[in-house]
Amino acid sequence: MPRLRLFVALLALASTASHAAPPAYLTLDNSNAQLMDAATASAMWKQNLPAKLFKLYPDKRWGFVSEVEGGFDDARVCVVTARAMMLPRSGKTLVFRPAKTATAFGSQANASADQCRSLAKAKLGEAIVAVASSLAGR
What we know:
alpha+beta
């Protein structure tokens, strides 16, 4: 009978551990609110970071920051700069000592506000993929 109880207890423990939340990096966004919102940036990080990064760079020690800046000039050209950085983590904060950085630039003439936001999203995606690929060796 004690073996049965031990087996049931171990089975319950294993099922609880298998339903634990997957690891997630701390991500921050310091972007121009007209071009990029924090929720979109966070979703882009989650979508573009491969699972093998968690083994190489533990989420308890590393985090990521995105910055998208720009807007329209006098000639109605949308100009965007997107930067993605991997930073060391200190507790619940990130220390601004970038371990990896990637920057992407873009412009689009006669763009609407929505087209400018789309360009910003595309350029941030490029920067995130560049950082992830340099870390994971894709």
